[in-house]
Fold this sequence. Notes:
- This protein is of the alpha+beta class and 273 residues long.
- It is 47% helix and 22% strand.
- The chain contains six helices and eight strands.
- It has helices at 7-19, 25-36, 40-62, 67-81, 89-92, 96-156, and strands at residues 162-168, 176-182, 187-193, 202-210, 213-220, 228-232, 243-252, 263-268.
- The protein has an eight-stranded antiparallel sheet, with helices on one face.
- Strand 1 (162-168) and strand 2 (176-182) form a beta hairpin.
- Helix 1 (7-19) crosses helix 2 and helix 3 runs antiparallel to helix 6 (96-156).
- It starts with 6 loop residues before the first helix and ends in a 5-residue tail after the last strand.
Amino acid sequence: xxxxxxxxxxxxxxxxxxxxxxxxxxxxxxxxxxxxxxxxxxxxxxxxxxxxxxxxxxxxxxxxxxxxxxxxxxxxxxxxxxxxxxxxxxxxxxxxxxxxxxxxxxxxxxxxxxxxxxxxxxxxxxxxxxxxxxxxxxxxxxxxxxxxxxxxxxxxxxxxxxxxxxxxxxxxxxxxxxxxxxxxxxxxxxxxxxxxxxxxxxxxxxxxxxxxxxxxxxxxxxxxxxxxxxxxxxxxxxxxxxxxxxxxxxxxxxxxxxxxxxxxxxxxxxxxx
Length: 273
């Protein structure tokens, strides 16, 4: 296990000593070098500590207890020591500036401790929030993936489905695909293989050739080689008798009303391939 202190822990440790002028020469040089390379959070911590130290030091110089407080403290001192007569002012005068400086120093230490605690707590909260956000994103992705698989499974479990095989054309001869179509429920599943990934400004578009005219059946994207499955959302009102063929073309992002790009896959609905 690595017992060396992290950069942030070392920075925090030296920061307080630097502000209080309590570092030796080597530690002072080390901290000044760390300050040059410090992160934004570490620089903010240094500014907060230095500001707190300056404010407390200024307050210590001007702090002067009231006359009433002085009298009560001196009366207690005389009572505890058994003195019956008032001592001279030179003998009984309390060193208030030294007392104020000591109190201010103690308050500074407390303030620095609170700043360190607040800094560390804020960093830990930020880390935990990031973990929570990542977990929530994973949960959403898993739920969407599960919903999609359930939809695809419902199509595959249909009692009667039509299978249309799609072959790759000259632009991509190694590609192929399948349309699994439940014409009774007007649901379909598209499986494509060996289609190349496309740029962000392009979309693959599926077409149903209905009475010899292309009708858009939706767009999809392939991000990596291999098999990809898509639910075809736009199969309504297309009967098995009217569908002549299926095709996949490459179009501008978002799709177009009529095909304009290269055709990557084609399958004849009448003969199954």
